[in-house]
Design a protein that fits this description.
Layout (H helix, E strand, L loop, with lengths): L9 H8 L6 E4 L6 H9 L5 E6 L2 H11 L5 E5 L5 H7 L6 E7 L4 H5 L25 H7 L2 H12 L4 H14 L5 H11 L11 H11 L2 H15 E11 L2 H16 L19 E2 L4 E2 L2 H6 L7 E6 L3
Parallel strand pairs: 1-2, 1-4, 2-3, 4-5
Antiparallel strand pairs: 5-8, 6-8, 7-8
Helix pairs in contact: 4-11, 7-8, 7-10, 8-9, 11-12
The protein binds S-adenosylmethionine.
């Protein structure tokens, strides 16, 4: 199994987080610790790094490679536990920088046994934490046709969502879908034409993965917790890999900046209505050099915002 995950947009992330040697930082998506290792490299003895990861294999990797690192605290669980963990540590409104590098990691995609890949045959699972929740195979075995079609449309923007959902339901009446190869072949056969640039199952696999792991719901839940955790002047950095995620992050930052709409003639703006986030610079994309070296970086987009002082 590949253990490598090249951190995406590493230099701009480090710049965005303006790391202070004795600061407190959070990496919400540890993965193989690419960003975390670089963060630790810039922290001094007094610095602290709290990381979240829900994949047991990634946590095992962290124990093995970072087990001796006393400045690092690992929370094995979803980043949606952030508010509770931060308040348990007494870090409410004290955190200097928070990073989310969303989605799945290269080791998760590359390991056929995890069931994320339509290019490699494996069990149809797709859970980042295979010890909890419903696998893709279990969901596809019982979900109503309309629900499958909605998921493919909503999270994959798949034009042929209804056709594919119908094909899945017909097929499962004969025998259950249990492998990624079976699902990929079924999707291919249900599609009328060929898109020469993409495997026909790309959108559907993305959609099912996002749904199974509640990726958008979790992102929506954690962003307000991150704002509350930040110290004045603290920075939030979020790397998204598809437009649904990025739209959510962009709107969140915009709304936190605008605050609730007040009558324009109000003489003094009450403190509760002051902007809670200030966007920093423009969204950052990978350079040609980075995408040549790491194709995963092609779709990455980094947004940065600051908690006003
Ligand atoms: C793109 S990878 C991060 C890679 C990491 N930045 C690195 O450089 O190695 C995303 C990681 O976040 C984890 N993850 C995704 N959603 C999560 C959530 N809600 N809570 C905790 N971990 C999550 C995934 O299991 C995956 O390992």
């Amino acid at each position: 199994m590949s253990e490598l995950h090249q951190p995406v947009l590493l230099a701009p992330v480090l710049e965005a987080l303006r790391i202070r040697e004795d600061g407190i930082y959070i990496d919400g998506t540890f993965g193989r610790g690419g960003h975390s290792a670089a963060l630790l490299g810039r922290l001094g003895k007094g610095g602290r790094l709290l990381v979240f990861e829900k994949d047991p294999l990634a946590v095992e990797f962290a124990t093995h490679h970072f087990g001796e690192e006393s400045r690092l605290t690992m929370h094995h669980g979803s980043f949606t536990d952030l508010a509770g963990v931060v308040s348990g540590l007494g870090w409410h409104a004290k955190v200097d920088g928070i990073l989310f590098d969303l989605g799945v990691s290269s080791p998760q995609l590359d390991d056929a046994r995890r069931g994320f890949s339509f290019q490699k045959d494996g069990p149809l699972d797709m859970r980042m934490n295979p010890d909890s929740g419903t696998s893709a195979a279990e969901w596809l075995a019982q979900a109503p046709e309309q629900e499958i079609a909605n998921v493919l449309w909503r999270y994959g923007e798949e034009r042929f969502s209804r056709r594919i959902a119908r094909a899945i339901v017909r097929r499962r009446e004969q025998s259950p879908l249990t492998t990624t190869g079976e699902l990929a072949a079924l999707i291919r056969s249900a599609m009328p034409g060929r898109d020469s640039h993409k495997h026909p199952a790309t959108r559907s696999f993305q959609a099912i993965r996002i749904f199974i792991n509640r990726e958008l719901e979790d992102l929506e839940a954690v962003l307000p917790m991150a704002v509350e955790a930040l110290a004045p002047g603290g920075r939030l950095a979020v790397i998204s890999f598809h437009s649904l995620e990025d739209r959510l992050v962009k709107r969140f930052i915009r709304d936190q900046h605008r605050g609730p709409q007040l009558p324009p003639d109000l003489p003094i703006v009450p403190k509760a209505y002051a902007p809670r986030l200030q966007p920093v610079g423009k969204p950052v994309r990978a350079t040609g050099d980075e995408t040549a070296e790491n194709p995963r970086a092609r779709s990455a987009i980094l947004r940065i915002a600051e908690r006003p002082t």
